[in-house]
Design goal:
The chain has a four-stranded mixed beta sheet. Helices cover about 55% and strands about 15% of the residues. With about 140 residues, it is α+β, with helices and mostly antiparallel strands. The protein has two domains: about 100 residues, Ribosomal protein L31 (Ribosomal Protein L31e, Chain: W, Roll), CATH 3.10.440.10; about 35 residues. It is built from five helices and four strands; from the N terminus they run βαβαββααα. A hairpin with a 2-residue loop joins strand 3 and strand 4.
Length: about 140
């Protein structure tokens, strides 16, 4: 699950004479426009870290931002390059891939194998089973007498 790195220009958001709020909103709009152009028809999800980075520097917006986009299930997810969210997403994808790669044990055990597995019970379980059998036998013997 490797994503593609994108360097997005935010020069329009740096325009002088605008308030910080307008600069940050313009930067987010520029990111959305960039990905709508390059990933047509896909739903866009911008990570929280990207949004926080833009708003943290809203008074002095950088002229470029480097992000990584990952396409998955018809959605494009945008993360900061080398962010914690991106690392977590990659770990999650690795676990899912490993889970899918493991072959499932679909073979049925034969009766002989079942008997061998039953014999491997712990000694405590064997004692409990023997006591239970004895009690059942005693009760049935009392009922007959």
């Amino acid at each position: 699950m490797e994503g593609k790195e994108h360097s997005i220009s935010l020069k329009k958001a740096k325009a002088k004479g605008k308030t910080d709020i307008k600069k940050a909103n313009r930067a987010i709009k520029d990111i959305r426009a960039y990905f709508q152009k390059h990933h047509r028809g896909k739903e866009l999800v911008i990570a929280k870290e990207v949004n926080e980075e833009i708003w943290k520097h809203s008074n002095n917006i950088a002229s470029r931002i480097v992000v990584q986009a990952i396409e998955k299930e018809g959605k494009v997810r945008v993360y900061l390059k080398d962010s914690e969210e991106l690392k977590a997403e990659k770990e999650k994808a690795k676990k899912e891939a490993a889970k899918k790669a493991q072959p499932k044990d679909t073979s049925k055990k034969e009766p002989a194998e079942k008997a061998a597995a039953a014999e491997e019970k712990k000694p405590e379980e064997k004692e409990k089973a023997a006591k239970a059998k004895k009690e059942v036998a005693d009760k049935s013997a009392e009922g007959k007498a």
